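Hey team,

Filing this mostly as a record. A colleague (T.K.) asked me to run one chain through the structure pipeline before their review meeting, and I want the input and output archived in the tracker in case anyone asks later how it was produced. No errors, nothing strange. Just documentation.

Input sequence:
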Amino acid sequence: MKIAILGGSFNPIHIGHLALADDVCVTLGYDKILFVPALNPPHKEMNDAASAQDRLAMVRDACKGDSRFAAEDCEIVRGGVSYTYDTVCCLEQKYRGRLDGKIGLIIGSDLTAEFHLWHNAAELANKCDLILARRPAVSGEGSFSNKPIGAYGMHPVAACESEPLFAHARTIENPLLSISSTDIRGRIAQGKSFAYLVPSAVLKYIRTGKLYGYR
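Output structure:
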């Protein structure tokens, strides 16, 4: 089984995440995409975040109805800082004997400039098949955005596919949907429409739980 992981805060998960996962399956032939909500991302402060359990529940709801998608709770269960290297090691053990090749790691082009700062970056790049996805230009400013921590975010947001770490990476031409969790949270808090930016099950969860200031 070919497995790829898509990590993130998923605060909340939206249709852009699902479209990206679908493209990885169709373009690169992956059988399963594991959505991994982070507990404590090492590279950013999570502003106006729903609880880890709420974010995990929304991911689970979003994955229902598509057998290729699944929520993976290992970072929440593990606790502490959510290092991708530790997650990949955990999933290699969990799926031992069932993996077809290396685990795929999907990252956005906005993260390539600082990938070398990730925990055990060189080992991670060797352990995984890196999949570089296009990211649309969306506004990330304002009180609803997630602020980079420390050295993260000090580098230009530009693709660095020429770096040795990306020597064997695959780049996909995924759909560019100008949707972000930051914008969705802002729209909800301001009473603006957002219904068709998230899966229907996630919409229901947000409304029922009155997340992000929904009223």
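Quick notes for T.K.: DSSP finds seven helices and eight strands in the chain. The first strand starts at residue 3 and ends at 8.
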